[in-house]
Every structure is written in structure tokens, then in C-alpha cells.
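Example (one chain per record):
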Amino acid sequence: MVDVVTILAVALLVGGVVGTVAPLVPGGLLSLSGLYLYWWHSGFADPGTLTLAVLTLLGVLTVVAELFGGSIAARAGGASWTTTTIATVVAIVLMIVTGPLGLLAGLFGTVFVVEFVRGRDAGGSARSAAYAAGGMLASTAIQVLLTVTILLAFLVAVFIL
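Predicted structure:
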């Protein structure tokens, strides 16, 4: 028989997957919350220690990708830390106002403009902006894969094994 806490834990894990593509929802933290809620509810017995450690590592990697994926990609494309900081703030504001498309456009546009003002190189600015936008999209894809893996591994470990 499945109880309320188990349902809540699975709902948090599913929310983690959804949160990776929904703006301002911390998917990795939701996944970790569901995992640890169930672990606590089971008397710290289920899932086992190794499974818990591996899923925790995947959850932490999800959080790191969420927080730093776009910035790391922008830096790889040649943007400065100042540029990535400004672009992050602008992108978040635009995301709140216009949604995910605003986030992407705000990030790309801000990186391009700030880098162009800094170096007067349109090609380099476009490259940095493309890296930042691509990095953000890749970060989202990685987060989805990690949270789906956490969810499926949890379901297998708890309900099948």
C-alpha cells in the first residue's frame, strides 16, 4: 500500500523533472527533497546507501548545471564575468516579464551588447552570445536528463528491487 508521504516524495521527484524546464523552479532541489523525504520516511533504510549517494550526486550535479551552466558556457565563448553577471540579471528580469523566450533573448542580447561595447568586435560578441544561449539550452537538457534519471532510478530502487 502506498502512503501519503510516498506519494508526496514521488510528486516532488516528478516536480523536479518539470522544474528543470519551468522558469524559476529549482528542479534539482525538488528532486533531492523527494529523495530525502522518502529516505527519512523509510527510517533511513530505503533507498540503500549506495543508491542514495549516487542519486544525491546526480541531484547536486543538476543544481550546479542549473546555477552555473550558462555562465560557464558564456565564459568559454570569451565573455567576461561582468558580462555574464549583467546578462544573468537582465535575463531573469525578462523571464519574469515575458517567460522563457525573454530569458533566452535577454541572455543573448545582453551578452552581445556588453561584449560589443567592451571590445567593438561584432563577431566575437556574437560568438560569446551564442555560447551563452547554447550553454543555457544545453544546461537545461542536462538537467532534464539528470532529474529523469533520478526519478527512474528511485522508482526502480523503491518499487521494483
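Caption: The chain has a mean pLDDT of 91.
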